[in-house]
Description:
61% of the residues lie in helices and 10% in strands. The protein has helices at 6-16, 30-44, 63-70, 89-92, 95-102, 122-130, 141-153, 161-171, 175-189, 197-203, 207-220, 224-236, 241-263, 268-275, 279-289, 294-312, 318-329, and strands at 3-5, 22-26, 53-57, 80-85, 108-113, 132-135, 158-159, 194-195. The mean pLDDT is 88.
Amino acid sequence: MAEANGMSIINSHIEKGEFSKLYLLGGAEEYLVNQYKNKLRAALIDVEDSMNYGVFKGDGIKSDAIAELATTMPFFADRRVILVEDSDFFKKGNEDMEKLFEDIPDTTVLIFAEHNIDKRCKLYKDISKIGTVANFDIPDERTLLIWVKKLFTNEDIQIEDKAVYKLIEYVGNDMNTLCNEAEKLKCYCMEDGIVTVDKVEDLSINQIEGKIFDMMDALSRKDKKRTMELYADLKELREPAMRILYLITRQFNLLLKTKLALMDKQDNAKIASALKIQPFVVKKYVAQCNAYTYEELLEKVNMCQEADTSIKTGAMKDNLAVEMLMMNLLQ
């Protein structure tokens, strides 16, 4: 069977009670991979049946042990289910699995949940023909909206569409993070029974802006390693390059304004009022400002604007422009 949308194909198999002998679960959205891995397992076998359920994880997996278990008849049950996670078999290949795929018993269901998949690999091509490849992509905006709203309606709590979009804006579109933040909001809004934009702003942790601030702090300390680690974290959160650029530009503009205020002998209270930020945050901006001269900050703001122009004129792709900016800022 060819590669298919993960949610639809697994839901269809469970609904019909008709399963493949081989499954490969992968894709960009790890939360969905984990959810549907567990959902598939629960549909295939009693969760208490440890005799007929085997798990192999990560480095050091012995493929011959998987093959041996897969060819063993189930113990007083209709089927044996085996879960293999992060084996790298679908990147590096594996002869034991190639042989097993050719003659896997009808009483065995083998599920692979993998991060590293190379579609050119023979194992991938084999499982695509005789099994099911379920791909879990990042949901589009509409699907994500419906999913987040369902997290609340299941608890008889309403959430405004604007509040959902604000939540996504604050924490990104990583479903694990959204689920965790939703749990906090449920407890916070249990009494009122409704989640508004104001309540999201009151409670949600702004991961993206927090990482941007930490990255700016690392930049001010000329800590190249930490700066790039935090930039990698932002990409891991799937934050769009243009938003990263916007936030970096905004931070340097704030630092520039802080530097001007300091040169004008303004105290922290006046700076906080002018920049519309909390007084305790001003201390952090002042500390970062001390690492730069006014001219250096002005140069870095210009670098950000040049990157923005390069993207908008089509001279450079957004991801490349931001990565080049990061390298220039570290010089």
